[in-house]
Write a structure and sequence with these properties.
Blueprint: E1 8-9, E2 12-13, H1 22-40, E3 43-44, H2 45-52, H3 56-68, E4 72-78, E5 87-92, E6 98-103, E7 109-115, E8 121-128, H4 136-149, E9 155-162, E10 165-166, E11 172-175, E12 180-183, H5 185-193, E13 197-201, H6 202-213, E14 220-225, E15 229-235, E16 238-239, H7 271-275, H8 277-286, H9 291-313, E17 317-321, H10 324-327, H11 330-342, H12 345-348, E18 352-355, H13 362-376
Helix pairs in contact: 2-3, 4-5, 6-13, 9-11
The chain binds zinc ion.
């Protein structure tokens, strides 16, 4: 795997996409083995060689190294179908390491979990969001410490999904709810815990959970509806961060030219003003008889906001994450109808709108994927 493929586009050579330098080849091959076992489960070294295209010798060598590092374990034998020795199976040691995940996106409580490498939650801790913003960093650090202490296995790393705009070094550039600007959350936590830490926006974490554990396709937008509205985006299986790390910040895009509800940001008709949980609940409380109409209206606004995104990126799926009783039904139905009416029928008619199956743990599980991906190259 030392290709130097380039893609040319209108005569302009784009960034090299598959170049693997020799010194990176080993790490790349290690990830390839781990990725194969992560998704396909136990297999023999011969199977691994066939699946990865690496030689038997390379596989033997890599598997020995991964066993000694505690990431891979032998798992008995499989009866040989013909003559010869039964094959020894190897698998990811899914119980051998733990991951700690934090979800700071809820309004009242910070959530935390200890997860297996399969994303199964084996312990939970949570703590009230402190009233004094000065205390937030300390409370988050202590929550992470308590989870690490409760892991009962080596911790591969700590993943954090937080509201706000987060750069590629885990610095929270802006999180108005916490009064944070330029807070090096990743740096503070990794110094305090002595572990690898990865921090991302909560919607960006959530879309990773949907991709790795929820079977989402390579081109998908996940919309999170809560106190605000945000989204996480994968294009070609890669997270999109944007030029200022604010990709997916669709909440304050104005929808339509006919005004609309007032938004906390001072504008009228922002997507968030139509769709956030507090805004929906406020309108439903005033007019419960018109419940379906209100939900359809919000769903239509979401469809209007998403149509150009679906068109530009040729997305195949929109996943919604938030309260089922509000999103699933009239609202999602109106969104899909609006999307279909407003995009190119031949290509985008099949765009799916569905609820996530990850429930309320989506950010915790996404935080685990950040660690798996960052530490093992698995996603
Ligand atoms: Zn706004």
């Amino acid at each position: 795997m030392t290709g130097t493929e380039t893609r040319s586009f209108g005569g302009r050579v784009l960034r090299q996409v598959t170049k693997v330098l020799p010194e990176h080849a080993r790490a790349h091959n290690r990830s390839l083995v781990l990725q194969t076992l992560f998704h396909q489960g136990a297999m023999s070294r011969a199977d691994l060689s066939r699946e990865t295209g690496l030689t038997r010798v390379t596989i033997s060598d890599l598997v020995a190294e991964l066993i000694s590092d505690g990431y891979v374990a032998e798992r008995g034998t499989r009866e040989a179908s013909g003559p010869g020795k039964p094959a020894i199976l190897v698998d990811l040691d899914r119980e051998g390491h733990r991951i700690v995940g934090l979800d700071l996106s809820n309004t009242d409580r910070f959530l935390g979990a200890v997860l297996t490498l399969d994303g199964e939650i084996v312990a939970r801790h949570d703590v009230a969001v402190p009233a004094d913003r000065e205390d937030i960093l300390g409370v988050v650090t202590q929550l992470a410490r308590d989870l690490v202490a409760d892991a009962h296995a080596p911790v591969l790393g700590v993943g954090v999904g937080t509201p706000g705009v987060v750069d590629d070094r885990g610095i929270v550039l802006a999180a108005p709810n916490f009064g944070w600007t330029g807070v090096d959350l990743e740096g503070v936590l990794s110094r305090e815990l002595g572990l690898p830490v990865l921090v991302a926006n909560d919607a960006n974490a959530a879309v990773l959970a949907e991709y790795t554990f929820g079977g989402a396709p390579d081109d998908v937008l996940l919309v999170r509806v809560g106190r605000g509205v945000g989204s996480g985006l994968l294009a070609g299986g890669q997270p999109m961060r944007g030029s200022r790390f604010a990709a997916g910040e669709i909440g304050h895009v104005t929808v339509g030219t006919d005004g609309g509800p007032e938004c906390v940001c001072g504008k009228v008709g922002c997507l968030e003003a139509w769709l956030s949980v507090p805004s929906l609940e406020r309108r439903l409380a005033v007019d419960d008889a018109g419940r379906d109409a209100t939900l359809r209206d919000a769903g239509e606004r979401l469809g209007i906001a998403l149509a150009p995104i679906v068109g530009a990126l040729d997305l195949s799926e929109i996943v919604l994450s938030g309260p089922l009783e509000l999103l699933d039904g009239a609202l999602a139905q109106a969104t899909v109808e609006t999307l279909r009416a407003r995009t190119l029928a031949r290509f985008h008619d099949g765009v799916q709108v569905r609820m996530t199956a990850q429930g309320e743990d989506i950010v915790l599980r996404g935080a685990a994927v950040m660690v798996l991906s960052g530490q093992l190259g698995v996603s």
